[in-house]
Design brief:
The chain is of the alpha/beta class and about 140 residues long. It has seven helices and five strands; from the N terminus they run βαβαααβααβαβ. It has a single domain, classed as DsrEFH-like (Hypothetical Protein Ychn, Chain: A, 3-Layer(aba) Sandwich), CATH 3.40.1260.10.
Length: about 140
């Protein structure tokens, strides 16, 4: 008789989300939701501006980098016409279709002047960088957005 096979671990998919403009948040949401639907354990680590945007309740606000300001109005109009889901809706859907966690960096909260008490309920966890790096270790895919 052979020993039992250990349970298979799902591939880990990591996104370090630093940017807070809509285009970057949208990419993290769509990529994360797709990876979760494909059966991956998805961890989105919120840093700096992504933390600030979520803390301010502006996750769904259509804003773009100044480099793309010339096209921002047109893109926002098209996204509204096409009924593209809001970032918050995509994050929620990602949780429903698979394993998807939003985790904020504790130092990022401090740097962005965000109080833990005001923010903790908006994410799955708030962790320090050593724990974040441990979770990101051996990930199948790691993205920085």
């Amino acid at each position: 008789m052979s020993p039992p096979t250990p349970p298979s671990k799902k591939p880990r998919f990591v996104i370090f989300l630093h940017g807070g403009t809509y285009d970057k948040l949208h990419q993290a949401a769509t990529i994360g939701m797709t990876a979760a639907a494909m059966g991956k354990d998805v961890y989105v680590f919120l840093m700096f501006w992504a933390i600030k945007k979520l803390a301010m309740g502006e996750l769904d606000r259509l804003d773009f980098s100044p480099a793309y300001e010339m096209h921002a109005e047109e893109v926002a109009r098209i996204m509204t016409e096409k009924k593209v889901p809001k970032i918050s809706e995509m994050f929620e859907e990602a949780r429903q279709v698979g394993s998807f966690k939003l985790i904020a960096c504790s130092a990022g909260l401090e740097y962005m002047s965000v109080k833990y008490e005001d923010f903790a309920s908006k994410v799955d966890d708030v962790l320090g960088l050593p724990l974040i790096l441990n979770l990101a270790a051996d990930a199948e895919t790691t993205l920085f957005i």
